[in-house]
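testing teh design pipeline on a random one, pls ignore if ur not involved
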């Protein structure tokens, strides 16, 4: 497999740095090709602005990104990321959970790279007047593994934990970003309680990630529902006969 590893952590001497180094080595030892985006080392520009769309002046960011993509006028760093994604069968996204979300530099990677016409808002050839999203689109066929570290232990991120179930905390990324753009998200790798890690916990985290990377090509993705008339009505609400009487984010899983 060709793997793109996107790392969003500022400290290479941390547990996250060790996980990243060992994970990349593990994939390469297994015969996979790995490209690395170390966003902090790259000094990735996280803020979307007019420089992303040179020579394009539509009225809105949405229009500007779509026109720049269609005309091949995106900034060179964005085009380089598109080339890396085109080569990738799988994407590993590694980051610490900060304020219940991604670090700003990784959010900015998505903001700038996932432009209109490339990651969303592509006309659906099978359904005139509709666009391809939630499981379909240009990026369909790829899989993504999220590797996240948290300072809190596992219980606070459990089903009854005060922080909320981690799958729901990550729903905006797993479903609202990756699956929206057609990328199948695998169950995430969560390394909890890292602020209190000793040598044994460090070794266990390394082994957990090695095991999950060993199954990168075969792990079943999270079974999110495809957008379409089989599951959703014209207002994009789940049909009442599906998951009857239930609400919440879990209803969007098959």
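output:
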């Amino acid at each position: 497999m060709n793997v793109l590893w996107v790392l969003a952590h500022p400290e290479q001497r941390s547990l996250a740095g060790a996980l990243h180094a060992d994970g990349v080595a593990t994939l390469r030892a297994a015969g996979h090709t790995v490209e690395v985006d170390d966003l902090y080392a790259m000094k990735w520009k996280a803020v979307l602005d007019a420089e992303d769309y040179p020579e394009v002046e539509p009225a809105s960011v949405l229009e500007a990104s779509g026109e720049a993509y269609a005309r091949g006028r995106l900034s060179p760093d964005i085009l380089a990321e598109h080339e890396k994604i085109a080569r990738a069968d799988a994407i590993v996204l590694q980051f610490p959970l900060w304020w219940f979300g991604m670090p700003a530099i990784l959010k900015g990677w998505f903001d700038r790279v996932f432009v209109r016409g490339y990651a969303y808002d592509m006309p659906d050839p099978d359904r005139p007047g509709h666009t391809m999203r939630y499981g379909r689109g240009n990026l369909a066929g790829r899989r993504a593994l999220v590797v996240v570290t948290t300072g809190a232990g596992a219980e606070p991120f459990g089903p009854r934990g005060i922080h909320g179930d981690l799958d729901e905390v990550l729903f905006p990324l797993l479903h609202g970003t990756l699956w929206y753009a057609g990328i199948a998200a695998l169950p995430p790798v969560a390394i909890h309680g890292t602020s209190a890690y000793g040598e044994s916990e460090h070794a266990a985290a390394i082994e957990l990630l090695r095991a999950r990377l060993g199954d990168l090509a075969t792990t079943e993705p999270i079974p999110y529902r495809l957008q379409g008339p089989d599951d959703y009505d014209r207002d994009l609400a789940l049909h009442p006969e599906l998951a009857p009487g239930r609400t919440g984010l879990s209803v969007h899983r098959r």
